[in-house]
């Protein structure tokens, strides 16, 4: 009897995790256009430090022991078939949608070829070495973490963070002490904030490109900078859904899932990671948790059982490094209450390694030690 065919669309944190989890029990095909996995958690460090490139990009060659990786875009996906960009159709008994979200460089990359992505990082680091001032638009976790990396690696650069909100980290349920701790650490490094008013217009150049410009906030504050970064605007990637799955997309591009993480009305189709409508922060740890839940349910279906494993959205937690040595974290204590840890604890948990060793182990690679 032929093995059940599991097709995973998207090879990010969620897709790579579920593909490896099911590799031993099914005929797994992972559809992913990039030739290397991008460890997005470490991408901002690679933007300022070339030594981190080997800890961010991992080839898919050793991810699966039995299955295969098809390096192509999913052009059209129904509940039983995935049509890829090469004109080939991959049939699925079980389908997993894990295509994540699009986000501006350098947090994420649109390039499918790792050599092209690395070349873009080279140009960015050259631009930073010549820059005197940088503007970051967005005072959420990504913008603040990028400010931490830049202020650590290029302390002479004048950094300004712009956001229409009155404070940092306003898009999540974060404790005030977390906001004040992060902000005070950045201010101690000379980072300034232009809060409470959006930009009146965006700079006329692409992000990460050296080209001095002047912009104004709607409140009238003038900002001069040599380059800028946009740190907002997650966009779910689900426009490939067609046929019987076309109606699964919500107006914002996400897909609605049951607690068992299958698409509502499609017991053999699962969605995991950032594209789901699960009410929680879109972070790597949540995507990996989704993958384990969906893998358990697919195993149950393969064995003739019922999918009974459910995903419980976690409390709003964050581990937010500001470079290798700074940052703060909001965690859940043993008594169920949230508390905030400082720079040294955050560095030990995430800031020093950025989980790159764990990713290297998943992909069968040994990362070069960061200087």
- The spatial strand order of the largest sheet comes to 5-2-1-9-18
Please summarize the sheet with the most strands.
Answer: 5 strands, parallel
> What is the typical, i.e. mean, pLDDT?
95
According to CATH, the fold-level topology of the largest domain is: FAD/NAD(P)-binding domain
Determine Rg (CA atoms, Å).
21 Å
Q: Portion of residues in helices?
A: 10-25%
Beta-strand content: 15-25%
Q: Based on CA inertia axes, which overall geometry fits?
A: globular
Report on this model:
- The C terminus is likely disordered.
- The strands form 7 sheets. A 5-stranded parallel β-sheet has the order 5-2-1-9-18, with helices on one face. Strands 13-12-11-16 form a 4-stranded parallel β-sheet, with helices on one face. It has a 3-stranded antiparallel β-sheet with strand order 6-7-8, with no helix packed on it.
- The chain folds into 2 domains: 131 residues, FAD/NAD(P)-binding domain (3-Layer(bba) Sandwich); 167 residues, FAD/NAD(P)-binding domain.
- The longest helix is centred in the C-terminal third of the chain and has 19 residues.
- Helix 1 packs parallel to helix 6.
- Strand 7 and strand 8 form a beta hairpin.
- By secondary structure, it is an alpha/beta fold.
- 25% of the residues lie in helices and 23% in strands.
- The chain contains 8 helices and 21 strands.
- The protein starts with a strand and ends in a 9-residue tail after the last helix.
């Amino acid at each position: 009897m032929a093995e059940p065919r599991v097709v995973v669309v998207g090879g990010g944190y969620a897709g790579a995790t579920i593909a490896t989890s099911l590799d031993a029990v099914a005929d797994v095909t992972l559809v992913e256009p990039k030739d290397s996995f991008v460890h997005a958690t470490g991408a901002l460090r690679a933007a300022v430090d070339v030594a981190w490139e080997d800890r961010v990009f991992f080839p898919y060659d050793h991810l699966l022991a039995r299955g295969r990786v098809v390096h192509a875009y999913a052009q059209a996906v129904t509940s039983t078939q995935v049509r890829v960009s090469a004109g080939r159709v991959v049939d699925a008994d079980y389908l997993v949608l894990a295509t994540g979200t699009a986000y501006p460089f350098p947090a994420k990359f649109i390039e499918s070829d790792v050599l092209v992505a690395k070349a873009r990082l080279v140009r960015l680091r050259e631009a930073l070495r010549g820059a005197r001032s940088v503007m970051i638009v967005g005072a959420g976790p990504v913008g603040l973490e990028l400010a931490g990396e830049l202020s650590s690696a290029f302390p002479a650069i004048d950094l300004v963070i712009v956001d229409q909100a009155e404070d940092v980290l306003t898009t999540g349920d974060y404790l005030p002490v977390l906001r004040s701790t992060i902000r005070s650490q950045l201010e101690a490094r000379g980072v300034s904030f232009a809060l409470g008013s959006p930009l009146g217009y965006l700079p006329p150049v692409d992000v990460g490109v050296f080209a001095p410009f002047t912009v104004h906030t709607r409140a009238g504050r003038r900002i001069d900078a040599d380059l800028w970064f946009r740190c907002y605007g997650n966009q779910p990637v689900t426009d490939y859904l067609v046929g019987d799955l076309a109606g699964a997309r919500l107006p914002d591009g996400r897909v609605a899932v049951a607690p068992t993480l299958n698409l509502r009305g499609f017991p053999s189709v699962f969605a995991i990671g950032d594209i789901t409508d699960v009410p929680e922060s879109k972070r790597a740890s949540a995507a990996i948790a989704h993958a384990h839940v969906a893998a358990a349910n697919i195993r149950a279906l393969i064995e003739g059982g019922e999918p009974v494993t459910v995903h419980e959205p976690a409390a709003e937690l964050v581990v937010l490094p500001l470079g290798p040595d700074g940052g703060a974290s909001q965690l859940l204590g043993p008594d169920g209450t949230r508390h905030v840890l400082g720079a040294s604890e955050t560095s030990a948990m995430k800031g020093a390694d950025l989980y790159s060793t764990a990713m290297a182990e998943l992909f069968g690679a040994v990362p070069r030690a960061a200087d």
